[in-house]
Amino acid sequence: MSDPDRPAAADGGTDAEESVDVEDPADGDGPTAGATGAAEEAGGGTDPAAGTADSATEEAARETPPSLSLQVDGLEKYFGGLAAVDGASFVVEEGSLTGLIGPNGAGKSTTFNCITGVHEPDGGTVVFEGQDITGFRPHEVANRGLVRTFQIARELEEMTLLENLMLAPRGQVGEKLTSAVMPGLRGRVREQEADMVDRVWETLELFEIDHLAEEHAGNLSGGQRKLLELARALMLEPSMMLLDEPFAGVNPSLEEKLLDRIHQLKDEQGLTFLIVEHDMDLIMKHCEHVIVMHQGTVLAEGPPAEIRENERVIDAYLGDEV
Length: 322
Known about the structure:
With 322 residues, this protein is of the alpha/beta class. The chain is built from twelve helices and ten strands. The protein has two domains: 68-152 and 223-318, P-loop containing nucleotide triphosphate hydrolases (Rossmann fold, 3-Layer(aba) Sandwich); 156-219, no CATH class. It is 41% helix and 19% strand. A six-stranded mixed β-sheet has the order 6-7-8-3-9-10, sandwiched between helices. Residues 7-46 have low confidence and may be disordered.
Protein backbone atom coordinates (compact mmCIF):
# COMPACT_ATOMS: atom_id res chain seq x y z
CA MET A 1 0.00 0.00 0.00
CA SER A 2 1.24 3.49 -0.75
CA ASP A 3 2.26 5.89 1.99
CA PRO A 4 -1.07 6.80 3.64
CA ASP A 5 0.08 10.34 4.44
CA ARG A 6 -2.47 12.80 3.23
CA PRO A 7 -1.47 14.39 -0.10
CA ALA A 8 -0.95 18.14 0.01
CA ALA A 9 -3.65 20.25 -1.60
CA ALA A 10 -2.54 22.09 -4.73
CA ASP A 11 -1.95 25.86 -4.35
CA GLY A 12 -2.43 25.63 -0.61
CA GLY A 13 -6.16 24.95 -0.67
CA THR A 14 -8.97 22.77 -1.86
CA ASP A 15 -10.69 22.95 -5.20
CA ALA A 16 -13.84 25.02 -5.18
CA GLU A 17 -16.90 24.16 -7.18
CA GLU A 18 -17.24 26.34 -10.24
CA SER A 19 -20.55 28.05 -10.85
CA VAL A 20 -21.70 28.06 -14.46
CA ASP A 21 -24.37 30.52 -15.56
CA VAL A 22 -26.78 29.12 -18.13
CA GLU A 23 -28.88 31.56 -20.07
CA ASP A 24 -32.59 30.92 -19.84
CA PRO A 25 -34.35 31.41 -23.17
CA ALA A 26 -37.35 32.67 -21.22
CA ASP A 27 -35.32 35.70 -20.08
CA GLY A 28 -35.55 37.21 -23.53
CA ASP A 29 -31.87 38.22 -23.55
CA GLY A 30 -30.15 35.02 -24.63
CA PRO A 31 -29.29 34.03 -28.20
CA THR A 32 -32.19 31.59 -28.39
CA ALA A 33 -34.68 34.26 -27.40
CA GLY A 34 -33.19 36.71 -29.93
CA ALA A 35 -33.37 34.22 -32.76
CA THR A 36 -36.96 33.40 -31.90
CA GLY A 37 -37.90 37.07 -31.84
CA ALA A 38 -36.28 37.67 -35.23
CA ALA A 39 -38.09 34.72 -36.74
CA GLU A 40 -41.42 35.97 -35.41
CA GLU A 41 -40.80 39.45 -36.79
CA ALA A 42 -39.85 38.10 -40.21
CA GLY A 43 -42.74 35.68 -40.34
CA GLY A 44 -45.37 38.05 -39.02
CA GLY A 45 -45.97 36.09 -35.81
CA THR A 46 -45.82 32.64 -34.36
CA ASP A 47 -47.02 29.51 -36.06
CA PRO A 48 -50.24 28.19 -34.44
CA ALA A 49 -49.17 24.66 -35.31
CA ALA A 50 -45.94 25.19 -33.41
CA GLY A 51 -47.93 26.31 -30.37
CA THR A 52 -50.02 23.16 -30.57
CA ALA A 53 -46.88 21.03 -30.83
CA ASP A 54 -45.39 22.79 -27.80
CA SER A 55 -48.54 22.13 -25.80
CA ALA A 56 -48.48 18.47 -26.80
CA THR A 57 -44.83 18.21 -25.77
CA GLU A 58 -45.55 19.79 -22.39
CA GLU A 59 -48.51 17.47 -21.87
CA ALA A 60 -46.40 14.43 -22.73
CA ALA A 61 -43.70 15.57 -20.30
CA ARG A 62 -46.28 15.84 -17.54
CA GLU A 63 -47.56 12.35 -18.28
CA THR A 64 -44.10 10.75 -18.41
CA PRO A 65 -43.71 8.53 -15.34
CA PRO A 66 -40.65 9.09 -13.13
CA SER A 67 -37.61 6.90 -13.63
CA LEU A 68 -37.51 3.97 -11.25
CA SER A 69 -34.36 2.77 -9.52
CA LEU A 70 -35.91 -0.24 -7.82
CA GLN A 71 -39.02 -2.32 -8.48
CA VAL A 72 -40.02 -5.06 -6.03
CA ASP A 73 -42.97 -7.20 -7.12
CA GLY A 74 -44.63 -9.96 -5.10
CA LEU A 75 -41.54 -10.65 -2.99
CA GLU A 76 -41.78 -13.72 -0.75
CA LYS A 77 -39.48 -15.29 1.82
CA TYR A 78 -40.34 -18.17 4.14
CA PHE A 79 -38.49 -19.59 7.13
CA GLY A 80 -39.80 -23.01 8.15
CA GLY A 81 -43.26 -22.26 6.83
CA LEU A 82 -43.38 -18.79 8.41
CA ALA A 83 -43.83 -15.99 5.88
CA ALA A 84 -41.29 -13.30 6.79
CA VAL A 85 -42.07 -11.47 3.54
CA ASP A 86 -45.46 -12.21 2.02
CA GLY A 87 -46.00 -10.73 -1.43
CA ALA A 88 -44.41 -7.31 -0.83
CA SER A 89 -44.52 -4.94 -3.80
CA PHE A 90 -43.23 -1.37 -4.08
CA VAL A 91 -41.11 0.93 -6.23
CA VAL A 92 -38.39 3.47 -5.43
CA GLU A 93 -38.01 6.47 -7.72
CA GLU A 94 -34.59 7.46 -8.99
CA GLY A 95 -32.97 10.21 -6.94
CA SER A 96 -35.47 9.91 -4.11
CA LEU A 97 -35.11 9.56 -0.36
CA THR A 98 -37.61 6.84 0.55
CA GLY A 99 -38.37 5.48 4.00
CA LEU A 100 -39.34 1.89 4.83
CA ILE A 101 -41.03 1.63 8.21
CA GLY A 102 -43.13 -0.84 10.17
CA PRO A 103 -43.46 -2.52 13.57
CA ASN A 104 -40.90 -5.07 14.75
CA GLY A 105 -41.19 -8.27 12.74
CA ALA A 106 -42.81 -6.53 9.77
CA GLY A 107 -40.22 -7.98 7.37
CA LYS A 108 -38.20 -4.87 6.61
CA SER A 109 -34.70 -6.26 7.11
CA THR A 110 -35.63 -9.56 5.44
CA THR A 111 -36.84 -7.55 2.44
CA PHE A 112 -33.46 -5.79 2.34
CA ASN A 113 -31.72 -9.16 2.53
CA CYS A 114 -33.76 -10.54 -0.37
CA ILE A 115 -33.11 -7.46 -2.50
CA THR A 116 -29.35 -7.53 -1.91
CA GLY A 117 -28.82 -11.28 -2.26
CA VAL A 118 -28.21 -12.17 1.39
CA HIS A 119 -31.34 -14.34 1.17
CA GLU A 120 -32.68 -15.90 -2.01
CA PRO A 121 -36.37 -15.00 -2.41
CA ASP A 122 -38.91 -17.81 -2.53
CA GLY A 123 -41.06 -15.81 -4.90
CA GLY A 124 -41.41 -12.49 -6.67
CA THR A 125 -38.95 -10.34 -8.58
CA VAL A 126 -36.44 -7.58 -7.89
CA VAL A 127 -35.60 -5.22 -10.76
CA PHE A 128 -32.82 -2.65 -10.37
CA GLU A 129 -32.37 0.03 -13.02
CA GLY A 130 -34.28 -2.09 -15.53
CA GLN A 131 -32.38 -5.34 -14.89
CA ASP A 132 -33.86 -8.35 -13.10
CA ILE A 133 -31.46 -9.10 -10.23
CA THR A 134 -33.67 -11.62 -8.42
CA GLY A 135 -31.46 -14.23 -6.75
CA PHE A 136 -28.17 -12.45 -7.54
CA ARG A 137 -25.43 -12.92 -4.97
CA PRO A 138 -24.48 -9.94 -2.77
CA HIS A 139 -21.30 -9.04 -4.66
CA GLU A 140 -23.16 -9.24 -7.98
CA VAL A 141 -25.80 -6.84 -6.68
CA ALA A 142 -23.14 -4.45 -5.34
CA ASN A 143 -21.22 -4.55 -8.63
CA ARG A 144 -24.32 -3.21 -10.36
CA GLY A 145 -24.42 -0.16 -8.10
CA LEU A 146 -26.91 -1.27 -5.42
CA VAL A 147 -25.11 -1.14 -2.07
CA ARG A 148 -26.41 -1.65 1.47
CA THR A 149 -25.37 -1.08 5.05
CA PHE A 150 -26.34 -3.18 8.07
CA GLN A 151 -28.01 -2.54 11.43
CA ILE A 152 -24.71 -3.36 13.12
CA ALA A 153 -21.72 -1.73 11.44
CA ARG A 154 -19.35 -4.37 10.06
CA GLU A 155 -16.07 -2.52 9.97
CA LEU A 156 -12.70 -4.26 10.10
CA GLU A 157 -11.79 -3.40 13.67
CA GLU A 158 -8.04 -4.09 13.50
CA MET A 159 -7.58 -1.87 10.46
CA THR A 160 -7.48 1.91 10.33
CA LEU A 161 -10.25 3.98 8.79
CA LEU A 162 -7.94 4.68 5.86
CA GLU A 163 -7.39 0.96 5.30
CA ASN A 164 -11.10 0.16 5.67
CA LEU A 165 -11.92 2.56 2.85
CA MET A 166 -8.98 1.45 0.70
CA LEU A 167 -10.34 -2.10 0.68
CA ALA A 168 -13.81 -1.13 -0.52
CA PRO A 169 -13.48 -0.18 -4.23
CA ARG A 170 -13.97 -3.00 -6.70
CA GLY A 171 -11.78 -3.72 -9.71
CA GLN A 172 -8.46 -3.00 -8.01
CA VAL A 173 -5.58 -4.04 -10.26
CA GLY A 174 -3.37 -4.96 -7.31
CA GLU A 175 -5.80 -7.65 -6.13
CA LYS A 176 -4.47 -9.95 -8.85
CA LEU A 177 -1.15 -11.63 -8.07
CA THR A 178 0.12 -11.24 -11.64
CA SER A 179 -0.52 -7.50 -11.58
CA ALA A 180 1.30 -7.12 -8.29
CA VAL A 181 4.48 -8.94 -9.33
CA MET A 182 4.86 -8.35 -13.08
CA PRO A 183 7.19 -5.41 -13.77
CA GLY A 184 5.03 -4.08 -16.59
CA LEU A 185 1.95 -3.81 -14.37
CA ARG A 186 3.38 -2.69 -11.06
CA GLY A 187 3.43 0.93 -12.18
CA ARG A 188 -0.27 0.74 -12.98
CA VAL A 189 -0.94 -0.70 -9.53
CA ARG A 190 0.91 2.19 -7.86
CA GLU A 191 -0.89 4.75 -10.01
CA GLN A 192 -4.33 3.34 -9.21
CA GLU A 193 -3.48 3.13 -5.52
CA ALA A 194 -2.38 6.78 -5.46
CA ASP A 195 -5.66 7.84 -7.06
CA MET A 196 -7.54 5.73 -4.53
CA VAL A 197 -5.76 7.39 -1.61
CA ASP A 198 -6.97 10.75 -2.93
CA ARG A 199 -10.55 9.44 -3.10
CA VAL A 200 -10.30 8.02 0.41
CA TRP A 201 -9.20 11.35 1.84
CA GLU A 202 -11.99 13.17 0.03
CA THR A 203 -14.52 10.70 1.43
CA LEU A 204 -13.14 10.93 4.96
CA GLU A 205 -13.37 14.72 4.72
CA LEU A 206 -16.94 14.53 3.43
CA PHE A 207 -17.97 12.63 6.56
CA GLU A 208 -15.71 14.77 8.78
CA ILE A 209 -13.75 11.80 10.10
CA ASP A 210 -10.46 12.56 8.33
CA HIS A 211 -8.89 13.37 11.72
CA LEU A 212 -9.45 9.69 12.60
CA ALA A 213 -7.85 8.32 9.43
CA GLU A 214 -5.07 6.46 11.29
CA GLU A 215 -7.32 5.31 14.14
CA HIS A 216 -8.27 1.64 14.34
CA ALA A 217 -11.94 1.20 13.46
CA GLY A 218 -12.51 -0.83 16.63
CA ASN A 219 -11.85 2.29 18.71
CA LEU A 220 -14.68 4.31 17.19
CA SER A 221 -17.94 5.20 18.91
CA GLY A 222 -21.20 3.76 17.62
CA GLY A 223 -22.02 6.91 15.69
CA GLN A 224 -18.55 7.14 14.18
CA ARG A 225 -18.84 3.52 13.03
CA LYS A 226 -22.07 4.38 11.23
CA LEU A 227 -20.27 7.25 9.48
CA LEU A 228 -17.47 4.88 8.49
CA GLU A 229 -20.00 2.32 7.23
CA LEU A 230 -21.66 4.91 5.00
CA ALA A 231 -18.29 6.24 3.82
CA ARG A 232 -17.11 2.76 2.91
CA ALA A 233 -20.32 2.08 0.98
CA LEU A 234 -19.78 5.32 -0.94
CA MET A 235 -16.33 4.11 -2.04
CA LEU A 236 -18.15 1.49 -4.15
CA GLU A 237 -19.56 4.35 -6.25
CA PRO A 238 -23.19 3.19 -5.99
CA SER A 239 -26.21 4.72 -7.67
CA MET A 240 -28.49 3.53 -4.86
CA MET A 241 -27.97 2.83 -1.16
CA LEU A 242 -30.10 0.70 1.15
CA LEU A 243 -29.51 1.80 4.74
CA ASP A 244 -30.69 -0.56 7.48
CA GLU A 245 -31.32 1.44 10.66
CA PRO A 246 -28.40 3.84 10.11
CA PHE A 247 -29.34 5.97 13.13
CA ALA A 248 -29.73 3.22 15.73
CA GLY A 249 -27.51 3.92 18.74
CA VAL A 250 -26.29 7.23 17.29
CA ASN A 251 -26.23 10.35 19.47
CA PRO A 252 -28.20 13.39 18.22
CA SER A 253 -25.19 15.36 16.96
CA LEU A 254 -23.84 12.48 14.87
CA GLU A 255 -27.37 11.63 13.72
CA GLU A 256 -27.67 15.15 12.33
CA LYS A 257 -24.31 14.77 10.61
CA LEU A 258 -25.40 11.49 9.02
CA LEU A 259 -28.63 13.07 7.78
CA ASP A 260 -26.74 16.05 6.35
CA ARG A 261 -24.44 13.73 4.40
CA ILE A 262 -27.35 11.66 3.08
CA HIS A 263 -29.13 14.78 1.83
CA GLN A 264 -25.89 16.09 0.35
CA LEU A 265 -25.25 12.85 -1.56
CA LYS A 266 -28.82 12.83 -2.83
CA ASP A 267 -28.83 16.48 -3.91
CA GLU A 268 -25.30 16.79 -5.29
CA GLN A 269 -24.62 13.30 -6.67
CA GLY A 270 -28.16 12.15 -7.44
CA LEU A 271 -27.95 9.04 -5.24
CA THR A 272 -31.13 7.16 -4.43
CA PHE A 273 -31.77 6.07 -0.84
CA LEU A 274 -34.10 3.51 0.74
CA ILE A 275 -33.88 3.71 4.53
CA VAL A 276 -35.23 1.27 7.13
CA GLU A 277 -35.78 3.12 10.38
CA HIS A 278 -37.89 2.74 13.55
CA ASP A 279 -37.95 6.47 14.26
CA MET A 280 -41.17 7.38 12.49
CA ASP A 281 -40.81 11.12 13.13
CA LEU A 282 -37.35 11.15 11.54
CA ILE A 283 -38.61 9.34 8.44
CA MET A 284 -41.62 11.64 8.12
CA LYS A 285 -39.41 14.71 8.35
CA HIS A 286 -36.68 13.69 5.91
CA CYS A 287 -38.23 11.31 3.35
CA GLU A 288 -40.33 12.29 0.34
CA HIS A 289 -42.05 8.91 0.10
CA VAL A 290 -42.80 6.38 2.83
CA ILE A 291 -43.51 2.64 2.54
CA VAL A 292 -45.14 0.90 5.51
CA MET A 293 -44.77 -2.86 6.00
CA HIS A 294 -46.85 -5.01 8.32
CA GLN A 295 -46.73 -8.79 8.71
CA GLY A 296 -44.55 -9.24 5.65
CA THR A 297 -46.54 -7.17 3.18
CA VAL A 298 -46.87 -3.52 2.17
CA LEU A 299 -49.67 -1.97 4.21
CA ALA A 300 -49.51 1.55 2.75
CA GLU A 301 -47.25 3.91 0.85
CA GLY A 302 -47.31 7.56 -0.12
CA PRO A 303 -46.18 11.03 0.99
CA PRO A 304 -45.50 11.44 4.72
CA ALA A 305 -48.60 13.58 5.27
CA GLU A 306 -50.84 10.81 3.94
CA ILE A 307 -49.10 8.09 5.94
CA ARG A 308 -49.47 10.06 9.18
CA GLU A 309 -53.25 10.13 8.73
CA ASN A 310 -53.63 6.54 7.52
CA GLU A 311 -55.83 4.67 10.02
CA ARG A 312 -54.43 1.27 9.07
CA VAL A 313 -50.89 2.48 9.75
CA ILE A 314 -51.92 3.92 13.10
CA ASP A 315 -53.63 0.65 14.04
CA ALA A 316 -50.55 -1.38 13.03
CA TYR A 317 -48.29 0.70 15.27
CA LEU A 318 -50.74 0.66 18.17
CA GLY A 319 -51.18 -3.10 17.93
CA ASP A 320 -54.79 -3.21 16.75
CA GLU A 321 -56.01 -5.56 14.04
CA VAL A 322 -55.36 -4.27 10.53
